[in-house]
Design goal:
Length: about 80
């Protein structure tokens, strides 16, 4: 291992586990792993499950809610 790579690994080891995993995935992609495979984090899986449930129940934002999020105002 080169000195630079060794230093990078030492620094990444001090980061939170989730961030370490992100860096590991990036390094594996750069090293030739299949970049088309993306694994959702537990938070992303929960968010997707919630969104799927909202879609199944036809719970969509109203135009007024969309405008409020976007900061749009009626003239």
């Amino acid at each position: 291992m080169t000195t630079l790579l060794d230093e990078a690994v030492r620094r990444v080891q001090t980061l939170p586990d989730a961030v370490q995993d992100d860096y590991a995935r990036l390094l594996l992609r750069l090293a030739g792993e299949d970049p088309s495979v993306y694994r959702l984090s537990p938070e992303e899986e929960r968010s997707l499950d919630l969104a799927d449930g909202e879609i199944a129940r036809a719970e969509f934002a109203t135009q007024a809610e969309i405008d409020a999020v976007l900061g749009l105002h009626e003239p």
